[in-house]
Amino acid sequence: MSETRNPARAQILDGIRRSLHRGDLTDTARLAVEQRLAVPPRGPVVARAQLPAAEKVALFCQWAEANNATVSRVAAADVPDEVSAYLARNNLPAEAAIAPSPQLERYDWTSQKLLNLRRGRGEARDQVSITGAFAGIAETGTLVMASGPDHPVSLNLLPDTHIVVLREGDIVSGYEEVWTMLRGRYGKNSMPRTVNTITGPSRTGDIEQAIELGAHGPRRMHIVVVHD
Amino acid sequence: MQSTAHDFKDNVGTALADPNLQDSLAKLKVGFSERRRQAAERLPEFEALRDCARDIKNHALANLDFYLEEFERKVIALGGHVHWAPTADDARRIIGDLCKSVGARTVAKSKSMVAEEIALNEHLEALGIAPIETDLGEYIIQLRHEPPSHIIAPAVHLTKDQVADTFFEHHAPLGFTKRLTERNDLVAEARHVLRQKFLDADVGLTGANFLVAETGSSMLVTNEGNADLSNTLPKMHIVLASIEKVIPTLEDAAVLLRVLARSATGQESSAYTTLNTGPKRADDLDGPSAYHVVLLDNGRSSVLGTKMQDMLRCIRCGACMNHCPVYGAIGGHAYGWVYPGPIGAVLTPQLIGVEEAGDLPNASTFCGRCESVCPVRIPLPGLMRHWREREFERHLTPRAVRQGLALWSWLVRRPKLYRWATQMANRLLSMFGRAEGRYRSLPLAGGWTRFRDFPAPPAGGTFHAQWARHGGARVRP
Predict the structure, then answer these.
(1) Of B78, B224, B268, the CB nearest to A191
(2) What value of ipTM does the predicted structure carry?
(3) pTM for the model
(4) B129 and which of A110, A158, B124, B326 could share a cystine (Cβ 3.0–4.6 Å)?
């Protein structure tokens, strides 16, 4: 019904062409829009994020905190320690669902004798999740998560506390670089099922326009930024 | 939803007399617009981004058939399905059939104005399927059986106390027997109640802020994360979007996102911006096994190529209503249908007819604030003027107004007579006294002075008289 030509489809597309006073696009016009798709033009550059690497990381951290996330900057060897310490600082259980990701397995979680990790997707009972991130956007302190076997989407959403391990080298200026990275990883004609870009914990302003955190997604977001 | 736009004048009377609504609107007038101003000032590129956003939408509309076909091709290539719905009825039937195909008992819904437009909830309920609104604002008004009063803040007309009463009434049977008074407790209780609904839902239904032709992705912008739970936990994800939501590329989305959040809530970025492309992949650990996109026309294609095409650029940020003095006085419900405020005054006559909604474009002072903040630069006052002309042409304007306008146009085409008449009126008004600078009542003007004072003419005669006295030269302050 959806894939083949059908009357409803023809009705809408013909209606559009009739309103635009033309038939199908001419060859020249079609070439122009195909070219625009093949080489997408970028909009105005946001100057504040065009920075050398170190300052870009600092800008990312600044905006992430402005959007109610907390940030710790640590060396790779200290990531598991920082995760345990964060949970202890916030009186959270030493128990988490962790994304089954090769990137996260490079850290020595066995060093945390009291930390109980379960690898897999998010479940309703999970209090804490630990995931990596595909990229970080300095312009707004936004995390980019690409779904896949190494990153179930439910881990971004179900637990009350979301701990994200982000490598400094994955922090870019703006969305445009993320799109380039996605095309590089997945190819021009593919995408992961879901790309979540997440800026701080879940929130709502639906009661009297006052912001409350933790509407449906995590109430707390902690970002562990790892020196390369 | 059933329109009450024809009762606009009565609706306005009710709205002005509602103290809860007036309290809520007082907060709105300072909240959103001030935050938008600050966000725009923080970003030096904001005006250039608005120009670019306008151009992107214009380009997409001029090639809408191409981009829709490209979008469809990409969705199918990644395992999704696309359904074409020329009318609201078609869209309702398609979605109902999809829900029935998986034996759905409940549908977790993320806020969708297009779903309101096609009255989807009523249709699903008639099929024995329970739609569950999961956006907090939509959830509140669903419990209260009210329509949304704002396109991004559906419960903005309610006070905290009203929300507390509603939750107390509806959550008590679920074991929540305490009436809450704090906002964070109300949010936590709704989160708890709705979490189980997400886990139990058979279908997740979302709208889309944008459809990206390049990748076949639907793009959703939210703050709560409810859209993401809706598109991840249930076994089927249905996206309902109108045809003008399609944009060419991810780069275009980046430009539009930068103006959307800032114009809507004054945020640098909303908490969640999500791209969904097709169903769960073979090796994914979660996600729906089916992904369907329903493309709704419902009269939009006929607006292309006309003077009204500009309205299709709208990205539903709500800035026009946040900055509108009329919306600020009467709220959203008075407009009587799905889309309130200036964009509603333009869209509603198009979608349900000028006969039904002809009053809405008249509810504007043409102050121009809506146009000045619109992220895609829709000339809203110009479009409202268009509808006023259509209303006049179709003889829908009340007789008294038509006769008044006829008299006026006869008079202004006779300059000498016009000057004499205005001088007489000026003198006459002076005789009634202008001590206070305004009149509480005037003969023959009861329709005006019953609701507001009439301004007194300034001393020194009519404008023409003053102009002549100054030798026609510009008077410098």
Answers:
(1) B78
(2) 0.96
(3) 0.93
(4) B124
